[in-house]
UniProtKB/TrEMBL annotation:
<dbReference type="InterPro" id="IPR013747">
    <property type="entry name" value="ACP_syn_III_C"/>
</dbReference>
<keyword id="KW-0012">Acyltransferase</keyword>
<protein>
    <submittedName>
        <fullName>Ketoacyl-ACP synthase III family protein</fullName>
    </submittedName>
</protein>
<keyword id="KW-0808">Transferase</keyword>
<dbReference type="Pfam" id="PF08545">
    <property type="entry name" value="ACP_syn_III"/>
</dbReference>
<dbReference type="InterPro" id="IPR016039">
    <property type="entry name" value="Thiolase-like"/>
</dbReference>
<feature type="domain" description="Beta-ketoacyl-[acyl-carrier-protein] synthase III N-terminal">
    <location>
        <begin position="108"/>
        <end position="173"/>
    </location>
</feature>
<dbReference type="InterPro" id="IPR013751">
    <property type="entry name" value="ACP_syn_III_N"/>
</dbReference>
<dbReference type="Pfam" id="PF08541">
    <property type="entry name" value="ACP_syn_III_C"/>
</dbReference>
<feature type="domain" description="Beta-ketoacyl-[acyl-carrier-protein] synthase III C-terminal">
    <location>
        <begin position="247"/>
        <end position="337"/>
    </location>
</feature>
Length: 344
């Protein structure tokens, strides 16, 4: 949908130190052959920092210099793709307490790796409905250093990374204007990440972890046995949502300066995201994401912050943010840079 009054007034992140792929191979964590074709150089890893604490650090960075006071905020939206703390506890309110500390709603979004993009859209709808407030804080964070995830082998599409990102959504000003945003799903493909696994009891309650690679192999086995899975052409969904969102913004890919995308391995990135929108690695944030990995929902905004603060995009440039989540769903936003980065 077109969004003429949606701005990003602040952006911030927190990333722990990097572990190189060479170190992972040397320690037996990552297969040498897989490493050779992945194109990945490093992954951000935190052995023990709680994800909500990373979200707080990112949120404080986004709030600094955003041009809004805490009383301007209508809502905080927090998201994650991995457990955040004690069962039944509210990570969003913990983040709220340690950032804005105001008696406003703190909500959790469960939209997988599209949660940050969905959070920006949801924040905009909330602000349009609440004319008394002009800003919202959107945060996300994950730490995959748990027994439920093997960051090096959970998928052949990506390496799981730890980190956090945050943006201040505003209806009045910002360094960037979101010209259009939206998503598109193909729910017939939800089984690709279920692969026949029982829904109850939930996997994490009985020690089953996050392993997309294992489920993918199970789907292939089911296919070989005659139980055909849904059509796997997810790139068509990516192309369709990008085309729709560009049209809503009144632009084409020729107007796009750079593409922000998930932190996938190079072959998966090309096949799922870049090729479908007619972009190449030189148009993307690959040089950066290949040193971070896949942080869950933070990827797109980590890349946007890196490109803007690093000077790869400047005032007047348009950036396409494209991502996906299980379900399957693809999401897109068109962002126009309208302010110079700090120091310029």
């Amino acid at each position: 949908m077109r969004t003429d009054d949606l701005f990003l007034a602040g952006i911030g992140s927190h990333l722990p130190p990097r572990v190189t792929v060479e170190e992972a191979v040397a320690n037996g964590w990552y297969d040498e052959a897989a490493a050779a074709v992945s194109g990945m150089r490093a992954v951000t890893v935190s052995p023990g920092e709680p994800a909500p604490d990373m979200a707080i650090r990112a949120g404080r960075n986004a709030l600094e210099g955003c041009g809004h006071t805490p009383d301007d905020f209508a809502v905080l939206l927090h998201s994650a793709t991995h457990p955040q703390g004690p069962e039944g506890w509210s990570a969003p309110h913990y983040v709220l307490l340690n950032t804005l500390n105001r008696p406003i709603p703190a909500l959790e979004l469960r939209q997988g790796c599209l949660s940050m993009l969905a959070g920006v859209e949801a924040a905009w709808h909330r602000l349009r409905a609440d004319s008394g407030c002009g800003a919202a804080l959107v945060t996300t964070a994950d730490n995959f250093s748990t027994a439920l995830a093997d960051r090096w082998r959970a998928s052949d599409l990506f390496l799981l990374a730890d980190g956090a990102s945050s943006v201040v959504v505003s209806r009045s000003h910002g360094f960037a204007r979101v010209r259009a945003i939206g998503s598109r799903s193909d729910p017939a493909m939800e089984g690709l990440h279920r692969a026949g696994e029982a829904l109850f009891p939930p996997g994490s309650t009985v020690g089953r972890g996050l392993n997309f690679q294992e489920r993918g192999e199970r789907v292939r086995e089911q296919w070989a046995a005659g139980d055909a899975p849904p059509i796997l052409g997810f790139g068509e969904q990516v192309a369709a949502i990008a085309e729709r969102t560009l049209g809503e913004a009144g632009l084409t890919m020729a107007d796009i300066r750079r593409v922000c995308h998930p932190g996938y391995t190079i072959d998966a990135l090309d096949a799922i995201f870049l090729d479908p929108v007619g972009a190449g690695p030189e148009d993307s944030a690959w040089d950066y994401t290949s040193t971070v990995g896949h942080t869950g929902a933070a990827d797109l905004f980590l890349a946007l912050e890196h490109l803007w603060r690093g000077g790869a995009v400047n005032r007047g440039d348009h950036v396409l943010l494209i991502g996906s989540t299980t379900g399957m769903e693809a999401g897109c936003a068109i962002v126009e840079i309208i302010a110079d980065r700090e120091g310029n």
